[in-house]
Amino acid sequence: MRLQESGPGLVKPSQTLSLACTVSGESITTNNYWWHWIRQPPGKGLEHLGTIDSSGSTTSSPSLKGRITISRDTSKNQFALHLSSVTPEDTAVYYCANDVSWGQGTQVTVSS
């Protein structure tokens, strides 16, 4: 199984950050897995952002105060993260993962 993040590396403040995670070797509709978005800001620990399960149900961190949306495209075997109204504090390495595998991570910088 392989997970690969993709998306812009630079986002301007107040815009929406959108990342996709392409999964190969396993279907995202498989019952056994939850699919996660996680980030690590510079110099800080890992922060779990949210999850989408095999049925498409989502949960997200209350700390993001309604700014986050997690969606999926089963035809592409992808799930996505959308984070609105970003600030420089959203600068981080963003990872997608499931219970047994992680993507390599993608650096996102929020700056004008």
Blueprint (SSEs and pairs):
Blueprint: E1 2-6, E2 10-11, E3 17-24, E4 34-40, E5 47-53, E6 58-60, E7 68-73, E8 78-83, E9 92-97, E10 106-110
Parallel strand pairs: 2-10
Antiparallel strand pairs: 1-3, 3-8, 4-5, 4-9, 5-6, 7-8, 9-10
Question: Your description of this structure?
Answer:
It is a single chain. With 112 residues, the protein is mainly beta. The protein has no helices and 10 strands. The chain has a 6-stranded mixed beta sheet with strand order 2-10-9-4-5-6, with no helix packed on it. It has a 4-stranded antiparallel beta sheet with strand order 1-3-8-7, with no helix packed on it. Strand 7 (68-73) and strand 8 (78-83) form a beta hairpin. The chain is globular and about 40 Å long. The mean pLDDT is 96.
Task: Give me a quick take on this structure.
Helices cover 0% and strands 49% of the residues. It is mainly β. A six-stranded mixed sheet has the order 2-10-9-4-5-6, with no helix packed on it. Strands 1-3-8-7 form a four-stranded antiparallel sheet, with no helix packed on it.
Strand order in the largest sheet: 2-10-9-4-5-6
Report strand %: over 45%
**What is the count of β-strands?**
10
What is the averaged pLDDT score?
A: 96
Low-confidence stretches: none
- How far apart, in Å, are the first and last alpha carbons? 36 Å
- SSE pattern, N- to C-terminal: EEEEEEEEEE
How is the main sheet built?
Answer: 6 strands, mixed
- If you compute it from the alpha carbons, what radius of gyration comes out, rounded to the nearest whole angstrom? 13 Å
